[in-house]
Amino acid sequence: MKKYLTIIAAVLSVILVVLIAVFALILNGTITIKPYNPVPIIGSADSPTDIYVSDEQSPEPEPETKKIVVLDPGHGKSSSLMSEDEKLAEMWIHNPNKGWGEWRHWKSGTTWTDCEGSGCTGRAPSNGSCWYRMADGDRDTEPEINLNNTLNAKKYLEEMGYEVRMTRNSNDENPSMTNRLVYCYKNHDTASQPDADIFVCIHSNAGGGRGSAYMSMSGLYDQAGTLPSEEYISESNRLGKLINDRIITETSMPAFSGGEYDGFPTTILFCKSPVPMAYLEIGFFDNQSDLSILKTESDSIGKAIANGIDDYFKEQN
Ligand SMILES: [Zn+2]
């Protein structure tokens, strides 16, 4: 009995030694293990036309899909300094009775069909009309402040991986609101579906007060945008609040009016934008304390805008 056990032990020892040796050779690379790789075979197995599919082809890299943000620095060159050709190129309209301006709305249920005063909701400021006078948008000081804050926001957004489109790049241009919205479309093709995700208007306030707020939209939105009316309004307001919250927590700018202006259903860009949009009034440029912050903390304001936009997309996921 003991003899048999000795033989079994010896056999097992030999097997063990062989296994260890094979394992060592595999580790060493002397022996390679070919993985089982089923290949489709056309024709007979030993035909010279056999086709082998290599397993070494790497998959196509996923195309990178960046979120697209349109940044709109409010206002620009004064209308009195622009030639007629410049105004026409910026899509301002000359109306024989009303002068230079643009229509506030598209016809209900459409985009890119101006209401021309009828076939729209008729929302307008009190004592106003569907027509917006170009000269009412003329500002001094503000265009430069808006552009600086916007360029800083662009810098941080691009660092975060967003695609950014600017509606103007200098203070020597002044696109109509309508012309600013063409940046929501790939190659400005307004006959296609908008490919931008959001539109962000960056302004500064004046007229008594201080601090930063977003304009909250309420009321009916009846343009043919990417979202149904209620969702367009709630997403637009969510975006505005997230950006303004970042501004008042990450810069010295206080909140104006609790950070939110209520009820601006008449703003042209709110009425006509095909994608959710935020409208920020960052500080009062006619208040010395706010003006000082706007001048010295523009980089932080830009970063706060970028962070707020990033919050919006992260909450969405
Ligand atoms: Zn109208």
List bound small molecules.
zinc ion
CATH topology: Aminopeptidase
Shape: elongated
- SS content category: alpha/beta
Helix content: 25-40%
* Largest sheet report: 6 strands, mixed
For this structure, what is the CATH class? Alpha Beta
- Average pLDDT figure: 86
Q: So, CATH architecture?
A: 3-Layer(aba) Sandwich
**How many structurally independent domains?**
1
Outline the structure in words.
This protein has 317 residues and is of the alpha/beta class. It has one domain: Aminopeptidase (3-Layer(aba) Sandwich), CATH 3.40.630.40. Helices cover 35% and strands 15% of the residues. It has eight helices and nine strands. The strands form two sheets. Strands 5-1-6-9-7-8 form a six-stranded mixed beta sheet. A hairpin with a 3-residue loop joins strand 2 and strand 3. Helix 3 crosses helix 8 and helix 5 packs across helix 8. The N and C termini lie far apart (72 Å). About 5% of the residues have low confidence. The site of zinc ion (ZN) has 7 residues, from loops.
Secondary-structure topology with pairs:
Elements: H1 2-28, E1 68-73, H2 84-89, E2 93-95, E3 99-103, E4 131-133, H3 142-159, E5 163-166, H4 177-180, E6 198-205, E7 212-215, H5 229-250, E8 255-261, H6 268-272, E9 277-284, H7 288-296, H8 298-316
Parallel strand pairs: 1-5, 1-6, 6-9, 7-8
Antiparallel strand pairs: 2-3, 3-4, 7-9
Bound molecules: zinc ion (ZN).
Zinc ion binds next to loops.
Short key terms for the protein model shown above:
single chain, 317 residues, alpha/beta, Aminopeptidase, six-stranded mixed β-sheet, three-stranded antiparallel β-sheet, 8 helices, 9 strands, elongated, binds zinc ion
